Amino acid sequence: MMEIRKIQMAAMSMRKNALKMAFECGSNAHLGGGLSLIDILAVLYGDVMNCTDKTIEYDKKDKFILSKGHGVLGLYTALAEFKIFEESLLSTFQKNGSDLIAHPVMNLKLGIESSNGSLGQGFSMAVGLALAAKKQHKEYKTYVICGNGECNEGSIWEAAMSAVNFKLDQLTVIVDNNKLQSDGRSSEIMNVSEMKDIFSAFGFYVVSVDGHDIEALRHAFSLHCPNKPLAVIADTVKGKGIGFMENNNEWHHNRLTESQYKQALLELESGL
How many angstroms separate the Cα of 66 from the Cα of each of 75, 126, 227, 272? Predict the structure, then answer.
């Protein structure tokens, strides 16, 4: 089990890399929603999933799906931080010919388990992977992150019904509940704020946590209920870690100036 402090340091490193990628790519990037899920990913890759162990064959490795594809800065930095691919690859983000573009494209050699562009699709793929594990008597677990705004999509709830129907207790869905989406506050667009009650009504085993509390996240991912999929409702802050970005929806998709980049790095480093 990785020490909490080491996971926190990994998350800090991931945030710094996410900022560097967003700045150096020379265009807009989805910073806010990438930063909100970094602590979740640091716990999953650093302490929960076995997919960082290169001695384990693929069929036995846990699977991770980023259904919220625009949170890809978080995913890429996790894959680099936990040595699934070389950190130097991050410098190619959104460059011509790069494997690391604005939404993930499946590349198993790089640890990217699914392609994602249109929201609402990754949860269904995760259900398929979990169902395959159940039918083939494989022990790997499947984890999927969805956005709170993404939960406006009907396909999310079709996947939820399927997960419960097939009793997929090797499946965990995490809602990155930062309460904002592209067009504003989620509560003012399509109010599905009672996520815990909704997933519970579908038949999930549900827990709500602070999505930036490492110990709480680690405990949540350890929970298991026979024949029920797990839903972790992670209350997060969009733009977490950078004062001028936190809960500021201008940073859903925006471009960093050099002065903003330097200010953001100073904020992170002062919090060490």
Answer: 8, 9, 23, 28
Q: What is the pLDDT of residue 13?
A: 97
Kindly state the DSSP code that residue 121 receives in the 8-state scheme: -
For 4, 133, 142, 205, 224, the CA distances from 171, given in Å and listed in that order, are 24, 10, 5, 11, 10
Alpha helices (runs of H) in 37-153, residue ranges in sequence order: 38-43, 72-81, 122-135
Tell me the CATH number of domain 4-270, given options 1.25.40.10, 3.40.50.970, 3.40.1000.10, 3.20.20.370: 3.40.50.970
Cα gap 138→49, rounded to integer Å: 15
Structure tokens at 129: 């992977």
Radius of gyration for the alpha carbons in the chain, expressed in angstroms and rounded:
17
Q: What pLDDT does 118 receive?
A: 85
Tokens of 82: 């936990």
Taking the domains of the chain in order of start, what are their residue ranges? Answer: 4-270
Contacts of 4 (CB under 8 A, 6+ apart): 214, 215, 218
Q: What pLDDT does residue 272 have?
A: 53
Overall pTM surpassing 0.90 (yes/no): yes
